[in-house]
Amino acid sequence: MITAQIVKVIPFAFRCVDEYRKTEYYAAVKIQSWFRGCKVRAYIRYLNKMMVFIQKWWRGYQGRKKFRKMLEVKLSF
Predict the structure, then answer these.
(1) Which pTM value belongs to this model?
(2) Which runs of consecutive H residues, i.e. helices, occur in 1-77?
């Protein structure tokens, strides 16, 4: 008798464990995707800052070069 009752309870217990594992798995996936998204967004911000830095440096270089050329032309007269 007792074994028959246990046999009936075991599949139910496994079903509960499986449901819990699925819930835990989906929660882990959500956390991982959130974390990866944060890392990617931080990397994109970093790339954007570096891009602005390079543009700023290049435009400054071009401006100084143009200014020197303009001074040479003005002083040569």
Answers:
(1) 0.62
(2) 2-76
